[in-house]
Specification:
This protein is an alpha+beta fold and 442 residues long. It is built from 11 helices and 18 strands. The protein has an 8-stranded mixed beta sheet with strand order 1-2-6-3-7-18-8-17, sandwiched between helices. The longest helix has 22 residues. The radius of gyration is 24 Å and the shape is elongated.
């Protein structure tokens, strides 16, 4: 997932505002030593998407020890832990589990030294460069608190460890494997993500669209190759592909509403192998970002139209038209239901203080947590929120222009894990208790 924006310096005051003191916070504080042991273990031993075998086993054991009914191997390596506690709503709390093919450079004493071979076939280091280790640890911390507080809630709690968020297919795989048919179907789904753009311990939220539709598009531009000294005997695919690249920008600047954000980025342009040879093919790789289904359709249809139109303008014959492939690893936009968001954020403000909870802009990053709500949007509501991870000293230095902060997916990303875990566990436990309060309760 991508970062949003650097929060203004006034956010630093959040760290100075005393949060509401209570027994829940004290209980989480008491658990932090063993939680940090778990965090360091998870951080040191990350696994790639759909390979989270040891990670899932560690989480499954802990959930069984807490009294959950646990099923492993859902969606290949996912886990589902269910705790039934009388009549009431069904709430799903999700964590993601996978690491990234990144060689860690944080310098942490427990830095990952894991090596693996991803789908690319290139051996690489593996790192929790997106903070999923903090997510899993906070998820366990939340489970511990809820298991100990069964007198404070009623209903069915479904806690899932999802594989392959980074690959964009983990949620889809769990749903295809019967997540909502083999197990209780939720009315509400909850998740959080650590954030690399504001101080550790802050909470950020975005009502409505929070993250974007993410499409990957491959365009193969055909040509007629030949000698670079005799271009008139060829149909140059590089010139044609260049025209396509430039025209694609008008999809955002002239066809999309300026009030409806959209991104069309050409991330790769490959063609040719020698100075004096005009190749017979150029290949483009695009990332396409949007929020609404209508905006997504406009962009994808426009890409196909422009590719064909530019080829016609270049005089390409019908059998040399470009091919446009919209890859099937699409991640739909993530939507936070406004009423649910307002209700739970009100609780966050009460618990943590006004200055520690901030509405933040939506981002064009993607998150397949969106799949759960999308499976039944009329009956499932959803909220994903951010928890700041930047150490306070680093944030202050970045605000002063002394350093640049590493983003998520950076080999240097090392959040203040203790604050992320403690804040997220407290927020997630509070949210779940509010949603599942017995009749007449909160």
């Amino acid at each position: 997932m991508l970062k949003t924006m650097l929060i203004p310096a006034v956010a630093l005051c959040a760290m100075a505002v005393p949060a509401q003191a209570d027994e829940l916070r004290d209980a989480i504080t008491d658990d932090m030593p063993q939680l940090m042991d778990l965090y360091r273990d998870l951080h040191a031993h990350p696994e790639l998407s759909f390979a989270e075998v040891k990670t899932a086993a560690k989480l499954a054991k802990r959930m069984r020890d807490l009294g959950f009914d646990v099923t492993e191997g859902v969606g290949k390596t996912g886990i589902v832990a269910v705790m039934r506690n009388g009549a009431g709503p069904t709430v799903l709390v999700r964590t993601d589990m996978d690491g990234l093919p990144v060689v860690e450079q944080t310098g942490l004493a427990f830095a990952s030294k894991e090596i693996a071979v991803p789908e690319s076939g290139v051996q690489t280091g593996v790192m929790h460069a997106c903070g999923h280790d903090t997510h899993m640890t906070a998820w366990i911390a939340t489970a511990q608190q809820l298991a100990e507080r069964k007198s404070e809630w009623s209903g069915t709690l479904v806690m899932i460890g999802q594989p392959a968020e980074e690959a964009g297919g983990g949620a889809r795989a769990m749903l295809a494997d019967g997540l909502f048919t083999r197990f209780p179907k939720p009315e509400v789904t909850l998740a959080f993500h650590d954030a690399a753009q504001f101080p550790a311990g802050m909470i950020g939220y975005s009502p409505g669209y929070a993250l974007a539709n993410v499409d990957s598009v491959d365009i193969s531009v055909k040509g007629i190759g030949g000698h670079g000294a005799y271009p008139h005997t060829t149909k140059d695919p590089i010139v044609l592909a260049s025209a396509i690249v430039m025209k694609l920008q008008t999809l955002v600047s002239r066809e999309s509403s300026p009030l409806d954000p959209a991104v069309v980025t050409v991330g790769s342009f490959l063609a040719g192998a020698k100075h004096n040879i005009i190749s017979d093919e150029a290949k483009l790789q695009l990332t396409v970002r949007s929020y609404s289904d209508a905006s997504r359709k406009l962009l994808l249809d426009g890409i196909k139209r422009i590719a064909r139109g530019e080829a016609i303008a270049a005089g390409m014959p019908d059998d040399k038209m470009p091919t446009v492939l919209v890859r099937d690893d699409f991640t739909p936009s993530t939507f936070n239901d406004a009423d649910l968001t307002e209700r739970l954020v009100a609780g966050f403000r009460t618990r943590f203080g006004e200055d520690r909870v901030m509405q933040v802009p939506s981002v064009m990053g993607g998150e397949d947590f969106s799949e759960y709500r999308r499976a039944d949007p009329d009956n499932i509501k959803s909220l994903i929120f951010w928890v700041g991870g930047v150490p306070a000293e680093d944030f202050a230095r970045a605000e002063a222009g002394e350093i640049s902060l590493p983003s998520l997916h950076s080999p240097f990303w090392a959040p203040d894990a203790e604050k992320v875990i403690a804040t997220a566990a407290e927020a997630m436990t509070d949210a779940t208790l509010r949603l599942m309060a017995p009749a007449g309760g909160n």
